[in-house]
Amino acid sequence: MRSLTVLGATGSIGASTLDLIRRNRDEWRVVALTAHSNAADLAGLAREFGVEIAVVADEAHLPALRDALAGSGIEAAGGPAALIEAAARGADVTVAAIVGCAGLAPTMAAIEQGGIIALANKEALVSAGEVMMAAVERYGATLLPIDSEHNAIFQCLTGNERAHVRWITLTASGGPFRDWSWERLSAATPAEAIRHPNWDMGAKISVDSATMFNKGLELIEAHYLFPVGLDRLRIIVHPQSVVHSMVEYRDGSTLAQLGPSDMRVPIASALAWPARMDTPCAPLDLAEIGELTFRKPDEVRFPATRLAREAAQAGGAIPAVLNAANEIAVAAFLGGQISFTRISAQVEDVLGSYAPPPPGSLSDVLDVDMEARARARVLVTST
Ligand code: NDP
């Protein structure tokens, strides 16, 4: 039996992970499950999986969690320190599925225990970059990407030498607005932005997908996970989301990973790694799909990938600034405070105003994140 912790258990990735665990109950013992504020769903999951501890990051929801777990013998805890403590209990596999840089400190706590970290929380890696990769090395942890593109690349790289890689190509669906004019984009609503054509995901990543910041964050994520050089990382728009990414080698061979648009496939790949496990996903029916198409990204309508590439080139603290500014802009867009096209413009403005020195520790990264958020909030209120 292997032990598992899910950070962000009540979200979309959390649900997909626990669906797989539910189908293989006799192989897994669940140690800890966490949420932000959704005490009711968290308590339900904690009871179902008989966990040791359930944590709400927002302490205001701890009384509700305690009530819901009364008599179960399950420990209930709340607040950021409790979240870190739960992650630091260690598990054979920790699924890092909190959204945003809020997941960074608990993910680092899990890394320090040296187990397998199945990483969905791309904002944590984008923000902490070198600091996180150094911790993975120092504590002997294993970082397995469950972002579908990075999981695909990881699979395509297995058994091959990095030195022979010519290109790593990240595919992007292009999001719900890929064919929209600039004028139409300016008037796009949150409801339209979160209606993704291929994937069913949380609100933040859905907006990121619409702006292409998701692909920008993924470019930075790939830069840290697969250090073949930024100039060997490319993005291509592939509206069907069937080819999840590709690696081309020096001899002209391109390896790709294909699969249904269902996060249970990459999650299963990480949970079972280096073996394989069954998923309930429908098999890929290429004859039914008929056509796979590809096109170049448009960085005029969608400047996010350019901004991310520039941030990755600058390195150090700059990706953390980009991420924090984007998180604030996305929240402001979802809250009706700024327009869709202001998201990228605002991130660019914050990047132009703040260039802190490279962070040397987790606390440096969190300081950069906090300052960049403060600057982004000022822009929201002055817009
Ligand atoms: P969701 O919004 O669906 O879920 C987020 C989870 O994190 C919830 O459990 C939520 O708790 C918790 N959470 C939110 N804010 C905080 C906080 N401040 N502190 C602690 N916990 C918090 O997100 P997704 O599952 O869609 O995405 C999770 C991560 O995975 C993101 O980084 C995303 O980019 C990445 N990812 C997601 C994919 C997908 O298909 N959804 C695909 C690839 C990557 P509560 O429910 O209480 O709010």
UniProtKB/TrEMBL annotation:
Ligand binding (NADPH): T10, G11, S12, I13, N38, N121, E123, G202
Cofactor list: Mg(2+); Mn(2+)
E.C. code: 1.1.1.267
Domain 1-deoxy-D-xylulose 5-phosphate reductoisomerase C-terminal: start-end pairs: 143-226
Binding-site list for Mn(2+): D147, E149, E218
Pfam assignment, any one: DXPR_C
GO terms (BP aspect): isopentenyl diphosphate biosynthetic process, methylerythritol 4-phosphate pathway involved in terpenoid biosynthetic process
One MF term in the entry's GO annotations: isomerase activity
Reaction(s) the record says it catalyses: 2-C-methyl-D-erythritol 4-phosphate + NADP(+) = 1-deoxy-D-xylulose 5-phosphate + NADPH + H(+)
Pathway linked to the protein: Isoprenoid biosynthesis; isopentenyl diphosphate biosynthesis via DXP pathway; isopentenyl diphosphate from 1-deoxy-D-xylulose 5-phosphate: step 1/6
Positions of the DXP reductoisomerase C-terminal domain: 258-374
UniProt domain 1-deoxy-D-xylulose 5-phosphate reductoisomerase N-terminal: residue ranges: 4-129
UniProtKB keywords: Isomerase, Isoprene biosynthesis, Magnesium, Manganese, Metal-binding, NADP, Oxidoreductase
Residues involved in 1-deoxy-D-xylulose 5-phosphate binding: K122, S148, E149, S173, H196, S209, N214, K215, E218
Organism domain of life: Bacteria
Function in brief: Catalyzes the NADPH-dependent rearrangement and reduction of 1-deoxy-D-xylulose-5-phosphate (DXP) to 2-C-methyl-D-erythritol 4-phosphate (MEP).
Family: Belongs to the DXR family.
Protein name per its UniProtKB record: 1-deoxy-D-xylulose 5-phosphate reductoisomerase
Source species of the chain: Novosphingobium guangzhouense
